[in-house]
Design brief:
Elements (H helix, E strand, L loop, with lengths): L4 H15 L13 H10 L10 H18 L4 H13 L3 E6 L7 E5 L5 H18 L6 E3 L8 E3 L12 H18 L1
Bound molecules: zinc ion (2 copies).
Protein name: CGNR zinc finger domain-containing protein
InterPro entries: ABATE, ABATE_dom_sf, Znf_CGNR
Organism: Streptosporangium fragile
Length: 182
Amino acid sequence: MPFGHDMVHSLATVVDLVNTSPSTGGEDTLTDLEQLGAFVERQEVSGVETLDETDLTQVRALREAFHKVFTAPDQATAVIRLNTLLSSTRITPRLTEHDGHPLHVHYFAPGASLHEHLAADLGVALAHLLVEGEWGRLRTCSAPDCGHVFVDESRNRSRVYCDSRTCGNRMHVAAYRARRRA
Ligand SMILES: [Zn+2]
Ligand SMILES: [Zn+2]
């Protein structure tokens, strides 16, 4: 499935956002404005003004709403959850060129807060994924002690771990040891 650059970027951003949540099994890594600023920087979220505690509270709530889309038991539920998220967001498509990126569409309204910006852009990206029949690519890591989410972009939809170097490698070592003990 060839994802365009915008899509790849939005999906990476939503995965990163959701995985800051302790709901995914790790530490909460979005607890203060410094961490929120670091997230904005590493995902190159454009046009962000000064952030305050309201932004933090709203983005923390948004990551849980996105997590529920990833963990929906079936596509119909994912659609309902994503529609709920989208319906509470102002969405205004706008063609833009900035920071050397080619012409692309932003979905957040002018003057949008950070959470509206993220809800619109990331929500629309997930909507397109669902429309393409790719809901099954929204996954949760199979390692028993890890709940991180990821988007399986592999051709044969075979990816099961959030990160092959960490969880994948850890699980292979564990399986190898288990075989040796048997
Ligand atoms: Zn942009
Ligand atoms: Zn994992």
